[in-house]
Write a structure and sequence with these properties.
By secondary structure, the chain is mostly beta strands. The chain has two domains: 40 residues, Ubiquitin Ligase Nedd4, Chain: W; 48 residues, no CATH class. It is built from one helix and seven strands, in the order E-E-E-E-E-E-E-H. Strand 2 and strand 3 form a beta hairpin. The longest helix has 8 residues. The chain starts with 15 loop residues before the first strand and ends in a 13-residue tail after the last helix.
């Protein structure tokens, strides 16, 4: 964990390593014990995966969010953790999103 941030940018309280349940399970990050602000320490935060469905003649898997208007679709996306590679992050997140198995990444 990078400790460049030492104090909360919201209230000025000293940050502490606090474990909290997140999308991928429990994660310890620097958080403010007073107001709950999280230091994400994430220089490469977002990735998008183009997932080809080889059993469906190469169609591409798209995501749908019930809050999006009309027929709006998007790529499978997620946040990368510091030190993660795009391949590792894609392989870890793709199975959670569309309820599928990941077999090979390029």
């Amino acid at each position: 964990m990078n400790v460049d941030a030492r104090f909360c940018i919201v209230c000025g309280t000293a940050l502490a390593p606090i474990a909290t349940l997140e999308d991928g399970g429990e994660k310890t990050r620097l958080r403010c014990p007073a107001c709950g602000w999280t230091h994400w320490n994430n220089p490469t935060p977002v990735l998008a995966a183009v997932i080809e469905l080889v059993d469906r003649d190469g169609q591409v898997l798209l995501a749908r969010n019930a809050a999006w208007p009309g027929k709006f679709f998007g790529l499978i996306t997620g946040f990368m953790e510091a030190g993660e590679t795009p391949e590792t992050a894609s392989g870890a997140r793709a199975p959670r999103r569309p309820r599928s198995r990941s077999t090979r990444w390029r």
